[in-house]
Amino acid sequence: MFMDSIGVCIRLHTKIHNMGGDITMSSMTISNLKSAFGGESMAHMRYLAWGEFAAKEGFPNVGNLFIATAYAEQIHAHNHFRELKNEVGDADVTAGAGFGLTTTSENLQGAINGEKHEVDQMYPAFIAVAEMQGNKGALRSFNYAVEAEKTHITLFSAAKDAVDKGVDYDQNTVHVCTVCGHTLAGDLTDPCPVCKVGVNMFKTFVTEK
Ligand SMILES: [Fe+2]
Ligand SMILES: [Fe+2]
């Protein structure tokens, strides 16, 4: 039903654009890029806050994971911003945001919920619109983000399992691809599976002693 509505909007919008001979990026994708920029920017700041809190609560490796993941969200926000190119001017941005600073376990659950929303609902809808309208740059930026968010769900879930047992996350090293935001813990041996750049293009975060 939701996708049917998107399809109707896209067809209508495409028709309007074609009538005017406009081949620039669709207004729906421009709006989606702005919303995704808002969401990723806030996730970046939220993870920095939750990372600092985790370290203070006695989970320094969880803190490091949050800080590394905050950097991945920054990569996504920058990618989306760059795709907006000459869309100059102010805009009100509507984007989902989680709040709260209670326990590291709850913060991790909040992070998992946010990532799942992006993977299951937000980015698939944005990708469908960009794909149907042939907005290749936006499509790449959305695809990079959604693939990285999947890795964030896995990492945050492993960290939450540890914290709920009263111990720190067992990985003190996290790597983030500086091109697409792909994130992994432990050893870095292979090129990025998403955007294919080499290991030299990753930024590494290690828990401070
Ligand atoms: Fe994420
Ligand atoms: Fe990558």
From TrEMBL:
Matching CDD domains: Rubrerythrin (cd01041)
GO molecular function: metal ion binding; oxidoreductase activity
UniProt-listed Gene3D superfamilies: 1.20.1260.10, 2.20.28.10
Top-level taxon: Bacteria
Organism annotation: Alkaliphilus oremlandii (strain OhILAs)
Protein name: Rubrerythrin
Domain named Ferritin-like diiron: residues: 23-167
Pfam families associated with the record: Rubrerythrin
InterPro entries from the UniProt entry: Ferritin-like, Ferritin-like_diiron, Ferritin-like_SF, Rbr2/Nigerythrin, Rr_diiron-bd_dom
PROSITE patterns hit by this protein: FERRITIN_LIKE
